[in-house]
Amino acid sequence: MSDKVLLDxxxxxxxxxxxxxxxxxxxxxxxxxxxxxxxxxxxxxGKVAMSTDSFVVDPIFFPGGNIGSLAVHGTVNDxxxxxxxPRHITCAYIxxxxxxxxxxxxxxxxxxxxxxxxxxxxxxxxxxxxxKGAVDKIFINTTGIGDIIVxxxxxxxxxxxxxAVLLSGTLGDHGLTILGTREGLDFEAKVESDCASxxxxxxxxxxxxxxxxxxxxxxxxxxxxxxxxxxxSSNVCCELVEKExxxxxxxxGGCSILGLDPLYxxxxxxxxxxxxxxxxxxxxxxxxxxxxxxxxxxxxxxTDANPGKxxxxxxxxxxxxxxxxxxxxxxxxx
Length: 334
Hints:
Layout: H1 14-28, E1 48-55, E2 61-62, E3 65-66, H2 67-80, E4 84-96, H3 101-118, E5 121-130, E6 138-148, E7 163-167, H4 173-183, H5 199-208, E8 214-216, H6 222-234, E9 237-241, H7 249-258, E10 272-276, H8 280-288, E11 297-303, E12 310-313, E13 319-321
Parallel strand pairs: 4-5, 9-12
Antiparallel strand pairs: 1-6, 2-3, 4-6, 7-10, 7-11, 8-10, 9-11, 12-13
Helix pairs in contact: 1-3, 2-3
């Protein structure tokens, strides 16, 4: 193969076949994908969760991951938030002519590694190559599907008054990492993305505690926007306690310098869990036993004080509304 992506690789002819066999099947291959059919043959039973997403992150490589691992983690997490075991994903690539083949191989290699670690198989895919300048290096579209294992299914409209609001770890790591890498900023302390697949931890959680009302990963728009979506859908109020919010000192410092609010920065390896207060300690015990949840804590509760609103109880004891993010604080973070 050439050392750069050529338009020929999107032609559907021999060049396309070489790209598929020498790169994609090498790192993503399995019994189903290797058949190279136009669609995958899958066996489904009962309720399934299905999600689709597109990834356009800039830069495509960043501390803690790249666009390939991010695509797998993000899709796996979206399916898992439905109380499901992710089983299969599809991947479609839009490649810019001239993209270095070494970069593409690093991305596909990391996708294969992320998929194996998450326990999912890539069962179908597509590749398109467009002329230079028609796309920025590489965009990836994915779809994930999995078996729902709980009833009722966790849902953003299911939060109830008296519920505890739990968070699996620190806020803002991914968003600040992307901005820092994009702008060439040198933070005094190391900052890297929290990009990770959460499905194994989530399966343990919902199997031991089936009464989980809401699971959600606070990606674009961060914690504040995600909680606003939940309170509006559930017609409840969320009261967050500022002193309980876990934010790394280096992230807080970077945000202070740049004028950003970490409550609105994206995360790619954290999740919110809303469930009855009576089950909160058990849920935290399960979460903290996993490396991806060792920093889990309760950050607030669900009340009926101001339905549809998110209220932050400040360190000084005052209260302020956290509104939904207006516009894009930081574009192309996933």
